[in-house]
Amino acid sequence: MYFLFKQNPVVVAGSVIAVGSLLLALLSGFIVQPNLWQVEHLDQRLCWNNPAFSWPIPNVYNCSGASYPLGTDSYGRDVLQMIILAVPLDLEISLTIVILATIVGVALGSLAAYAGGKIDELILRVTDVFFALPALVLAIVVMVVLGRTLQNLTIAVLITWWPYYVRLIRSQVLSEKERPYVEALRSTGASPLRILFLHILPNTIYPVIVQMTLDIGGVILTFSALMFLGFSPNPTLPELGNLVTDGINYVFTAPWLIIFPGLTIVIIVLGFNLLGDGIRDILDPRLRR
Amino acid sequence: MTDFLVETNNVYKWFPIKGGLLGKTVGYVKAVDGVSLGVKKGETVGLVGESGCGKTTVARLILRLLDITKGQLYFDGTDITKLKGRKLKPFRRKMQIVFQDPYASLDPRQTVGSALAEPMRINKIVRTRGEAYDEAKRLIRVVGLNPDHLARFPHEFSGGQRQRIAIARALAVEPQFVMLDEPTSSLDVSVQAQILELLKDLQREFDLTYLFISHNLSVIRYMCRRILVMYLGAVVEEADTLGVYERPMHPYTYALLAAAPIPDPDKRKGTPVLQGDVPSPINIPSGCRFRTRCQFATSLCAETEPELEANEAGHLVRCHYRIDFLSKTVAERPMMRHESA
Amino acid sequence: MLEVKDLRVVFHTYAGEVKALDGVNLTLNRREILGLVGESGCGKSVTALAIAGLLPENASANGQIILDGRNLLTLSREEMRQARLKDIAVVFQDPMTYLNPVFQVGFQITEALISEKQVYEGQLINQRVQELQEDQMRGDRDSQELEIDRAKLQHSVESGKLSRGEAKGLARQVALQYLKLVQLPEPERIFKMYPFELSGGMRQRAMIAMALVRRPKVLLADEISTALDVTVQAQILALLKELRDRIDASVILVTHDLAVVSEVCDRVAVMYAGNVVEVAELRELFANPMHPYTQGLMAAVPRPDRSSVKLQSIKGSVPDLIYPPSGCRFHPRCPKAFASCPSTKPPLIEVQKGHGVECLLYG
Fold this sequence. Notes:
heterotrimer, A: mainly alpha, 10 helices, B: alpha/beta, eight-stranded mixed sheet, 29% helix, 25% strand
């Protein structure tokens, strides 16, 4: 197992990043004071005083006083601290959405596949309806109807995300339930629920796990996009998408505002993507044996 | 009639084919088209035929893994055709199955011990984990493996060993009847010999009744006392071993025997008797279903489907004629030519 | 004609080094059907793949595979590809996976002919020559005219080139001729069909046609009848026997089924765990099996024409080729093993003319 990991430095990099960001999320409360985002230093807006690098643009405002390694944003807050506060928020929302979407999707998908017939038809049609509506539009509609809170944001993205899992697990269970060992279990008198939960699901869950890791990044991008479109409950909220939105207005005068939060998004999403790819590579050849 | 442990009476399995926009039924795959068979206690009956003949479907119908479209199924005299759920469960454990593919018939994520213990717990044969484990140890020894194999996973074993595990699992619920669906077809020849001998020993030791399904004529001859030959969903011939192998009456049986290669250089075959391919069970030929490939077919064969009828020796055949394959003469079967209606 | 000397193949896998072939020695004579028989893991397929140059990336092969005086293992990739195009053809077990589902069957047969100029020109000459010969047999011409025509043909092809259209047309004719040769009914119709429209037996015949159309010197048939029903298998085996006389190729038939071997082959090589343990002429092998494994195998096979009292099995199971047994690889399972067996690998001993065994019992 180990040398498989070694042969895939990309996977190692990805998992380091992913694990690193999770650790950061857990520890951020100890690094930066949680309520710092609500404090504004309007005299220190949009300044940069990192001696290691100077921007090749005119009129860079130089901060006085405290050091701001990544500059300040339009409310005068330290960008680095904001990023550290944003990561846990983003990951929390993302994980909530992914886990809930998986649970709902797996439940419906496996029920549809195993029961077959009318139940399958019904679930499929409902899922198709959700597929037919463009995800972002649907999310926007939900936000407009429910109002702009973090909770509603979570719900909105969740609603657009669960159909993928239904499809995924449904096709897995459909093929798995035809396998001889399932027939053998039926012949010993095992109940359908037992077969489904104790036998079929554990054997089909791997693609779902891979999809989950890949989706963590995707979900972050989705709700960042929503925030960017103006559905942020509070523009000062330390969230990576928010920070980027904020920075768009100052792209020529204070580019650090877009670059560093944006880079953070990219790194986190990339990290989880690579982790997901790596898990798939590791699990696949073993499964295929 | 009730000295049959397992009996089917004119059983049909038709799979509907849906077509068109509205999903109407446009045809049927007639996988099993009127099969009546019976297996007596302690017997080993063989079911032989090529792909598409329906033998695998018959196996699943008997085990109620599929629903029967028409006809009845009896176990030890009781009609179990329509039983479901809790009522079917006690019968389920009396009939078990061993599949062809030893790799796929075990849950790859379950240890061997767990796979053996589970059916016992489901059917409440044991009460505690300890009992289950002891029973599993006993079972694994019975099939020729040893108890430290119980902690391992299926993929750690060879094909022959997995098949032994599958047999042990079938025996775990103390069945009376075991369906063997091509149990040695994917095994090497030397391993096949081991498994066949094991099956024979187990039959004696546990008083089991077997229905052995295979396309391999040599294995069937070795294992079975009475044999049914199937073609396109129906039984075309039924007799004891010598009757089928030495005195076949149906042209299809004769063709099968003529086609099966023999490991003996002095017994090479001439031109193959049967040309062409097996027709599909969607379009079964009118009249006798074998007539499209039968060298003796007549116009009667296209009009009327022959019934399965027995001669004095208890040898059943589904053919309008009495054919001598060596001289290629055809005679009308006495008392078997039906006048209209 | 084809000689394999001390062929060793090792697969480098994550789990370890699989020593699949441990010094395989084989000879294939002209126009003979050699059966390569053994159980799973014995290396028969690996041997065929090694001869065809189709071993996967993680395999290393050593030894000699000599065809027409050249050691195939020393050839470059391109040279090997040319050799495969002209001299060696393979037919595999499952035609559905080895035929491209999106192309017509006829196209797949002519593909190789049209793509390689030097092949097709030679091919088309042969085609024309064959037509002339058939004319002669039918009595339409006499041999002198035949010779003149043949010389003319040679000359015209050498001096000029065939246009693409002419080439396609002639290739199609050749393909149709071979489809007829493998006894497919209505070759014109089959030519235009897709693989999924054909039955298993027909697909297998199409694959054989595809292999033969290039007039290879060596045809490797890897378990070609295993996936077929017994009546269809009988047809394919009969076809092989007929073809043997009509094509000028040598065939290696790889199978696990002794009955198939008995039906079709002239000589047989029995393999176990990476070695050829016995090789003999067909009748001789069945009458007088010498290697304990061969004896065990024959005693384990049930027959359809006789009721057997009891099948003898070979105790134990096939060894793990990552850690194979030392000395003679069969010794842990051999009922006749003695002291030297675990330490000495038996050489190939010719006990009688044409009958060789790798067993210490005999030398």
